[in-house]
Amino acid sequence: MSIRSLLFVPGDSEKKLAKSEGVPADALILDLEDSVASQNKLIARGLVREFLSSRSAESRQQVWVRINPLDHQEAGADLGAVMPVRPDGIVLPKTRSPDDVELLGRRIGTYEAEYEVAVGSTRILPVATETPQSIFSLGEYGRCGKRLAALTWGAEDLSAAVGATANRDGDGQWTPPYQLVRSLCLFAAHAAGVEAIDTLHANFRDLEGLAVSCTEARRDGFSGKLAIHPEQVEVINEAFTPSAEEVERARRIVDLFAANPGAGTLALDGAMLDLPHLTQAKKILSLAERK
Ligand code: COA
Ligand code: MG
Question: Are residues 111 and 249 in the same domain?
Answer without folding.
Answer: no
